[in-house]
Amino acid sequence: MSRPLPGVFDQALASAVRAPSPHNTQPWRFVVEHDVIEVWLDRERLLTVADPHGREARLACGAAAFNLVICLRANGLAVQVRMLPDPAEPDLIAVVRLDGNQKSTAAERKLAEAVFRRHTNRRPMLDKDVPSAVRSALKSAALQEGGQVEYLDASGRYTPVASLVRQAEALQAEDSAFRAEAAHWTHREADSPDGVPKTASGPPPHGHGVVSLRASHENEDLPAREFEREPLLGAVLTRDRGPHAEVRAGMAMQRVLLTATAEGLATSFLSQPFETPRTRASLDRLFAGLGQPHTLLRIGYGYPTRLTSRRPVEDVLTHRAGSDVPAE
Ligand SMILES: Cc1cc2nc3c(=O)[nH]c(=O)nc-3n(C[C@H](O)[C@H](O)[C@H](O)COP(=O)(O)O)c2cc1C
Predict the structure, then answer these.
(1) Where does ligand 1 bind, in terms of residues with CB under 6 Å?
(2) Comparing 219 with 63, which gets the higher pLDDT?
(3) Nearest by Cα to 57 from 77, 38, 43
(4) Residue 255, CB-side half-sphere exposure with 13 Å CA sphere
(5) Which of 37, 68, 254, 272 is surrounded by the most beta carbons within 10 Å?
(6) 296: β partners
(7) Residue 294 placed within a domain
C-alpha cells in the first residue's frame, strides 16, 4: 500500500480547489483517509436557481478531481480513480487512491503547472485565430478523459447556439430570483474567498456582440469595449447523460482548459443556455446524434487577468477518524 509523502496531499488539495466553479461557489469538500482522497459535492453550495440539480456543480467537482489527479501524477504517484462509486452516496463524486509510483511525463507536469495560471478571462480576446494544431490538441485533451470538444464554427451550429445564449440571457434578465442569486455571488471585493470579484469581471460590451458575457459579470467601472464578433466556441460533450457523464465532462473540461492555458490561450464560459430549461432542451436537440452538451467554452488569445481567490483548503477538508496522516 502506498503512503503519501508529507506535503504531497497538501499540494494536490491546493490544486483541486483552483478548479473553476459556477460563480466561484466551490461546491466541494474533501475527505482524506490514509492514502485516499474523496471528493464530495457540497449541496449547501449549489446555485439553487441556476443549477437546482447540481449539474454545473458536478462539472466543477469533476474539474477539482482532475486537478487532484494531475498533481499527484506530476509528483510521480500512480492513482486509481473511481467516479461516483457508491449509488447509496450520490454526492461522493470521486475516490482517488494512491497506487504506487510512476514516472511523471512532461505533459502531466505541464498541465499540473497550468492549474495555478488558468483563470476565466472575461475581457475581449485579440484578433488572432487559434491554429488548427492547437484546436486539435484541445479535442484530444477532451477525448483522453472520455469527453469530446465540438467547435461550433466547424459544425454549423454557431448561429443557433449564439441565439440560444441571447434567449437565455433575456429569460434570466426577467427572472428576479435568478438576478438575486447572480447578484449575491458576483461584484465581490477582490479578496473575497468565494464568489466572483469585480476585478475578474469584463468591461461592458460596446455595441452588441454575437455572444454576450453575463450581465452580472460586467464591471461598469471599466469603459465599454468592442468584443470579438465571432469568438471560437467549443462545446464539451459526452456520449451519455446523467451524473456520471457530468463528472466525466468536468474532468474533460478541465483537461481542455489546462491544455489551453499551457498553449497560451485564454478561456471563458457561456453557460446561460444550460441554465434555463427551454434553452437547454433546444441545445440537447441541436447536438442530438453527437452527444450530450455540458458546457460552452470561449477560447482565444488575450491578456491574462487577475486570479480569483479560494477558501482555504482547511475549510473544505476533513481527516476521517483513524486516518493515518504522516506527520509533516
Ligand atoms: C460549470 C461552470 C459554468 C460556468 N459558467 C460561467 C458563465 O456562464 N460565465 C462566466 O463568466 N463564468 C462562468 N464560469 C466560470 C466561473 O465563474 C469561474 O470558474 C469562477 O468564478 C472562478 O474563477 P476562475 O475560473 O478565474 O478561477 C463557469 C464555471 C463552471 C465550472
Answers:
(1) 20-24, 56, 59-60, 119-120, 122, 196, 200, 214, 217, 268-272, 295, 308
(2) 63
(3) 43
(4) 24
(5) 254
(6) 235
(7) yes
